[in-house]
């Protein structure tokens, strides 16, 4: 089974904040860190230092998608954020990015295993496929 973590964050969010959310959400879901296949986000986070540092720290590939690609998952989100839409053009970065990459990697439908988890600076979701 392919497990993909989707991440969203504010500009300048540090790696420790992202790692804390990552580990807490996985622990709550009873999922071991090493089972995660890849990280996903929106293309505007492609150069975000905290996200890049997390990918390096976990030794995971990071795939980013455009707002238009992520918008296709709008009807499958557990939560639609008008704030996220105002900033990015899609209603949920973490959930839609996780679903998009899980489906891309498996060539089939994905589902959210862990719906959106949020801190003041970041969001996390976990999708699975295969």
UniProtKB/TrEMBL annotation:
Gene3D superfamilies: CobE/GbiG C-terminal domain (3.30.420.180). GO terms for molecular function: hydrolase activity. GO terms for biological process: cobalamin biosynthetic process. Keywords: Hydrolase. Residues 3-127 form the CobE/GbiG C-terminal domain. Transmembrane segments: none annotated. InterPro entries: CbiG_hydrolase, CobE/GbiG_C, CobE/GbiG_C_sf. Coiled coil: none annotated. It comes from the Bacteria. This is Cobalamin biosynthesis protein. It comes from Pseudomonas grimontii.
